[in-house]
């Protein structure tokens, strides 16, 4: 019996991908060796890498102007690679919460940062809007989904300067117009695979914009020129991603996924908005379908509610300390059924305690 | 039927570790979630991390002065982190082959490099010895085992300056006096686990030796202060490492492993030295038990020999292009039986063609 896993990440993965990975560990493709035991330059692994790549391209309709990389070090490493590769003088950042905060801190090591909008005044419970993007900056950094605060950018701005986006917590959850971005990155461990690999979608002609000395491994050019094989890539993590993307394609791709995510969103938020005991923390128009933050109006009941969710095999629902209460992360692989179970517990809780 | 896997890396892993990893993918520890689907801050994963750490400490007798990190990016990333964290003015490097060559190239981005010894004159077929370590350098870089050229440092120098060692291809193959080093690192994918995680053993009071601006992720201090949990670590790769180290402990640790590796070495090199058709490329006193490079005296027979090894279920034996011929990588997990099979093929080849 698998749990109803609402964890914020590393998050739930499709059983299909887990089972396919199991099969690959001792004897991959019938070659008498496990997938972790073969050369990353073997035809068997190159097929995995290229399949994963082509699935990203197909699912996100990545144009020919862009290429796909699988790197290591998570978004935390990207927070440094981004300014090292794109920041000459000044960059514009939007202060949307914990993750853009980390990105801003890192960029300041390498140049001037112009924070052009912020939602800090209300503990990042909404997405800044109506800001003007300055044309004297090298790029605009934006985070598509705030995992901790439960908000999402619904419409990306049309930017007069190159736009760079951290999509770690909502990539593959909805269609995205890749052509609007010079760089997109995402740690895999929410919607794409396990921790240990980072997807990078990069506009090919955007490399080489800075001349600063950078470690070879932190230069996008290195990885572009070597098809992510400059050094040994995280083989097993890429295999899992490939299988997750196969699963996503099999259910109809990101359009179908978005519809399912919307069903989960509607089911959950309908309950939050109608159940007298609960309240959502994010501004309704900015609510994220990936991470839903909510509170009991009477926080003295928190432990009791948690215990009831636990009894229903729900896990990972405790809120982040900076928001409190609860957080239901409803990543791609979370079944609608799990949301129904959660909603039923919320209803039952209201009946018992309301 | 598993192949006789002589691949240079990612290399063969113990079946025990592969099977334990299989079990963890869908339902880890009976918690109803797979190991890749749980928070890296959960007690279940922290137990994995801490067990892996304590096994490294136990197996290598790591003193209290040092700590253990599990990072991402491979030795290639360490080649940059090393000078970024330790090089103020000048560093001493030994030019032992392909891997120290990469380390030297990277260090030059950050300061002056004094190459104090080299074996380039004979295509890196021996280990430089008898060199004087200058006292005006910030550290000495040494690579313990040359994967490509098949040589190993048998005795580490007593260094008057901090010593840093890349042990990617022979860590855990023999005992090592960790106290001699300020920093040891090793990509996992030879003797410790899958690609995607890098073991770092660092002398705690050696952090903070440089003041240069460095990405947060490339500062050892970041990871030391956060027990490798500053960001999401490569969970599945660390789990595999834990199981590989459990296996190593179960067979008696690095002392027992060294004896088994010596048996494999003796069996293999005895054949190379006595079979009239073959010759080893490395200087006998520097031959690596991990990677044995050898040639057919008549290279016109290469394809025929390769075909015969293939028929015997031997894989990964083709030599690196910079040395040619053949390379038998005999990592910890390679059974003695596999070496016997190879030696039998070599004998049979000599009978047929000699």
Layout of secondary structure:
Two copies of one chain form a homodimer.
Chain A: E1 4-5, H1 15-24, H2 43-59, E2 66-71, H3 74-86, E3 90-95, H4 98-107, E4 112-118, E5 140-143, E6 145-146, E7 151-152, E8 163-166, E9 183-187, E10 198-203, H5 220-225, H6 235-250, H7 253-274, E11 278-280, E12 291-296, H8 302-311, E13 314-315, E14 326-329, H9 336-353
Parallel strand pairs in A: 1-13, 3-4, 3-5, 5-8, 8-9
Antiparallel strand pairs in A: 2-10, 6-7, 9-10, 11-12, 12-14
Helix pairs in contact in A: 1-6, 2-6, 3-4, 7-9
Q: CATH architecture of the largest domain in chain A, please?
A: 3-Layer(aba) Sandwich
Uncertain segments of chain A of ≥5 residues (pLDDT<50)?
none
Classify the beta-strand content of chain A into a percent band.
15-25%
Mean pLDDT of chain A: 97
Terminal Cα span of chain A: 31 Å
Chains forming the largest contact? A-B, 67 and 67 residues
Explain this structure:
The structure is a homodimer of 354-residue chains. In chain A, strand 6 and strand 7 form a beta hairpin. The two termini of chain A are 31 Å apart. In chain A, the strands form four sheets. In chain A, strands 2-10-9-8-5-3-4 form a seven-stranded mixed β-sheet, sandwiched between helices. A three-stranded antiparallel β-sheet of chain A has the order 11-12-14, with helices on one face. Chain A is built from nine helices and 14 strands. With 354 residues, chain A is of the alpha/beta class. At the A-B interface, helix 1, helix 3 and helix 6 of A face helix 1, helix 3 and helix 6 of B.
């Amino acid at each position: 019996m698998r749990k109803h896993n609402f964890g914020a990440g590393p998050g739930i993965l499709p059983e299909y991908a887990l089972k396919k990975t199991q099969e690959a560990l001792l004897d991959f493709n019938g070659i008498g060796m496990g997938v972790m035991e073969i050369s990353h330059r073997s035809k068997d692994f190159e097929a995995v890498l290229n399949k994963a790549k082509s699935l990203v391209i197909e699912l996100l309709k990545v144009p020919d102007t862009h290429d796909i990389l699988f790197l290591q070090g998570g978004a935390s490493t990207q927070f440094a690679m981004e300014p090292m590769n794109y920041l000459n003088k000044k960059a514009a950042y939007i202060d949307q919460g914990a993750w853009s905060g980390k990105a801003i801190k890192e960029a300041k090591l390498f140049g001037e940062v112009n924070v052009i909008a912020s939602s800090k005044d209300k503990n990042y419970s909404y997405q800044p809007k109506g800001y003007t993007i300055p044309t004297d900056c090298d790029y605009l950094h934006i985070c598509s989904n705030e995992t901790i605060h439960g908000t999402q950018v619904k419409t990306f701005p049309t930017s007069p300067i190159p736009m760079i986006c951290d999509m770690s917590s909502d990539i593959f959850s909805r269609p995205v117009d890749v052509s609007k971005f010079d760089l997109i990155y995402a740690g895999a461990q929410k919607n794409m695979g396990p921790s240990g690999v980072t997807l990078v979608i990069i506009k090919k002609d955007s490399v080489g914009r800075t001349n600063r000395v950078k470690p070879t491994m932190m230069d996008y050019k290195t990885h572009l020129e070597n098809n992510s094989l400059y050094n040994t890539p995280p083989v097993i993590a890429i295999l899992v991603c490939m299988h997750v993307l196969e699963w996503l394609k099999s259910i109809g791709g990101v359009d179908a996924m978005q519809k399912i995510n919307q069903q989960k969103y509607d089911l959950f938020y309908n309950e939050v908005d109608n159940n007298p005991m609960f309240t959502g923390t994010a501004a309704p128009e900015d609510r994220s379908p990936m991470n839903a933050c909510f509170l009991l109006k009477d926080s003295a009941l928190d432990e009791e509610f948690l215990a009831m969710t636990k009894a229903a095999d729900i896990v990972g629902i405790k809120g982040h300390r900076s928001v409190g209460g609860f957080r239901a992360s409803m990543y791609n692989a979370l079944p609608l059924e799990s949301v129904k179970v959660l909603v039923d517990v919320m209803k039952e809780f209201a009946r018992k305690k309301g």
